Amino acid sequence: MKADQYVTVAREGVHESEINRSRFLCSLAPAATEQEAQDFVARIRKEHPTATHNCFAYVVGADASVQKASDDGEPGGTAGVPMLQMLMRRDVRYAVAVVTRYYGGVKLGAGGLIRAYGGVVGEALDELGTVTRRRYRLATVTVDHQRAGKTQNDLRSTGRTVVDLRYGSAVEIEVALPEADLPAFEAWLADTTAGSAALTLGGETYAP
């Protein structure tokens, strides 16, 4: 079952927190693929070669099909897993988090580490902001040139999202529709164009 919507990171950025003299820097970024997530982790590690730990977690796929986490030398399950749990709890997808720790001389204990690593990811999400992407079905409306302008205006005035326009022997207007809206849209289109428009259903996309 595909997710109807998910949340992702609005932009790349860093949030810093100090806990018992240890510095925790959470670097967050959107990641469209697992490779992008891995490249981001490698980049942050290069930027902080003297850090005590560079732990990471990422989630790729609207249905969270790819999930990875690393404790990078912290006690097992005290860093990467709580980071991943925070991303999942917030419904965050297509995102990567790296928490860089500079040890300050005070041991935090397992519970303290779990709270610190999970907490700094939550704070970074709050600070950098998130965007919600909803699932839409792509549909192509094909009309003749005479009706194209009016049909486009009608689509926009009823709040439909026009994704693409293609001009050929006829005009193809690609729109993104919520799945539940399809039957009503078909009826509306037939009515608006007096039955002269053709509708072809395509794949799915996620958009704000």
Task: Give a written overview of the molecule.
This protein is α+β, with helices and mostly antiparallel strands and 208 residues long. The chain is elongated, with a radius of gyration of 23 Å. It has 5 helices and 10 strands, in the order E-E-E-H-E-E-H-E-H-E-H-E-E-H-E. 33% of the residues lie in helices and 38% in strands. Residues 21-125 form the Impact N-terminal domain.
> How much of the polypeptide forms β-strand, as a percent range?
35-45%
Order of helices and strands: EEEHEEHEHEHEEHE
Percent of residues in helices: 25-40%
Distance between the termini: 20 Å
Mean pLDDT: 94
Number of strands: 10
Number of helices, where a helix is a run of at least 4 consecutive DSSP H or I residues: 5
Q: Mind describing the biggest β-sheet?
A: 5 strands, antiparallel
Rg calc: 23 Å
| Overall morphology | elongated
Q: Structural class of the helix and strand makeup?
A: alpha+beta
Unreliable residue runs: none
SSE blueprint and pairings:
Elements lengths: L4 E5 L3 E7 L2 E9 L3 H14 L5 E8 L5 E5 L9 H10 L5 E8 L6 H20 L1 E14 L1 H13 L3 E7 L3 E7 L4 H11 L5 E10 L1
Antiparallel strand pairs: 1-7, 2-3, 3-6, 4-5, 4-6, 7-9, 7-10, 8-9
List keywords for this structure.
33% helix; 5-stranded antiparallel sheet; single chain; 5 helices; 208 residues; alpha+beta
Question: What's the short story on this structure?
Answer:
With 208 residues, this protein is of the alpha+beta class. Helices cover 33% and strands 38% of the residues. The strands form two sheets. Strands 1, 7, 8, 9 and 10 form a five-stranded antiparallel β-sheet that branches. A five-stranded antiparallel β-sheet has the order 2-3-6-4-5, sandwiched between helices.
